[in-house]
Amino acid sequence: MSGLFRKKIDPRCLYCARGVSLDPNEVMCIKCGIVKPYGTCRQFRYDPLKRVPPKPVKLSRNYTAEDMKI
Question: Model's pTM, two decimal places?
Answer without folding.
Answer: 0.62
